[in-house]
Design brief:
This protein is α/β, with parallel strands linked by helices and 370 residues long. 38% of the residues lie in helices and 21% in strands. Strand 13 (326-328) and strand 14 (331-333) form a beta hairpin. Mean pLDDT is 95; it is low at 1-13.
């Protein structure tokens, strides 16, 4: 799916549009459902910002490009959007893609507010131009490791594929579990079939298996194989990257997709703004809005505040991050530079470990918060 580009600089009665470039995965092999949710949140926030008078009377307008989870395609889109006159870049879900986009945006002097990608090393060097709403992977995945330890899991297997994102996650888990006597056993899905995973888990004496792999393949076949193996009845399956958040997961796996804990970035209760946005998103999306849709909404809300306070000049906008204080759907948003993170970071969004309730797969149970 390719979203048709809006007309750059389209004239309105109250002035030309203020253009924001958007990167989202809307086609395979990208996680298209996640991309749709980010985009729904972005578009709703643009509507609300324009209803409130836009930016000094000028309307906001999104120029959307489908990254399809391709870093090279994303970098090329950043070049195109910069040439079209966008004042800032927003969006992206996949960490490796966001990293490529951030590098290109930084080189071009284009401010980038990343909505959903969590990789700590979003850039190779410290930059003033890039900011992020989603928590850094090291923060969220340490909270997930705390959940595992609290549930008594110290021998954890990870089914993994080659990727800087999965390798980073494995390292976070290993570093956090080791001081507590825990161990991480890696299962390379480049050399194992889904059915072979079950034997490997028995041999490793693992009590938990984490899915650090792509969705739907090989994640879905792995879950089916493990759920169907009587030797692994008591094994916990986990998915810290959030695969079970989306309805496609439930549609593909049914009951087998329940009771698989994952990370999501929502508070236990939404405030008035969050509740209003949730209702509006529910009317736009064919399924319940995910936390990713709230990330999209908050992205434009922050950018609109920055544009109103610091103007539409790219350099001024890039300098706005540490001065912003914005009420988002999930709480007050301020940016800082946590240790080890080279971009401006909301530190921190609320973090939950949740799963789909086996008795009501359309509902989520909160298992742990951090």
């Amino acid at each position: 799916m390719n979203t048709p580009p809006s007309t750059p600089g389209r004239e309105h009665a109250d002035g030309p549009s203020v253009l924001i470039g958007v990167l989202v995965p809307l086609s395979r092999p990208g996680w298209a459902e996640a991309g749709r949710h980010v985009l729904a949140g972005l578009r709703l926030a643009v509507r609300d910002a324009n209803d409130a008078g836009g930016i000094g009377g000028r309307p906001l307008e999104l120029l959307v490009r489908d990254t399809a989870a391709d870093p090279e395609k994303a970098a090329a889109a950043v070049e195109e959007l910069a040439d079209l006159g966008v004042v800032a870049l927003a969006g992206e879900y996949h960490s490796v893609v966001a990293r490529a986009a951030a590098a290109r945006a930084d080189a071009l002097g284009l401010p980038f507010l990343c909505s959903s990608a969590v990789l700590d090393a979003l850039t190779d060097r410290p930059t003033e131009r890039v900011a992020r709403l989603a928590p850094a992977q090291s923060h969220g995945w340490r909270i997930y490791a705390d959940f595992l330890l609290g549930a008594g899991h110290t021998r954890v297997a990870v089914a993994t594929q080659p990727s800087v994102y999965w390798a980073s996650g494995t390292r976070v888990l290993r570093d956090h579990l080791a001081p507590h006597g825990g161990a991480v056993v890696e299962l390379d899905m480049g050399s194992l079939a889904a059915a072979d995973v079950c034997d490997a888990l028995v041999d490793a004496r693992a009590t938990a298996l984490l899915l650090l792999v792509g969705h739907p393949d090989p994640a879905v076949p792995i879950v089916r194989a493990v759920r169907g193996d009587r030797r692994l009845t008591d094994l916990l399956i986990g998915a810290p990257a959030g695969q079970p958040e989306f309805t496609e997961w439930a549609d593909l796996l049914g009951d087998d997709g329940t009771a698989i804990p994952f990370l999501r970035y929502l508070p236990e209760r939404l405030g008035p703004l969050g509740a209003r946005v949730e209702k509006a998103l529910s009317e736009q999306l064919p399924e319940a809005p995910s936390f990713v849709a709230f990330e999209g909404y908050d992205t434009v809300t922050v950018l609109a505040a920055a544009l109103r306070s610091h103007g539409t000049d790219r350099s001024g906008l890039a300098g706005s991050w540490p001065h912003l204080a914005v009420e988002g759907t999930r709480g007050p948003i301020r940016f800082s530079r946590p240790p080890g993170v080279d971009v401006w970071q909301w530190a921190w969004p609320p973090v939950q470990v949740v799963d789909r309730d086996p008795r009501r797969p359309d509902r989520f149970r909160i298992l742990h918060t951090g």
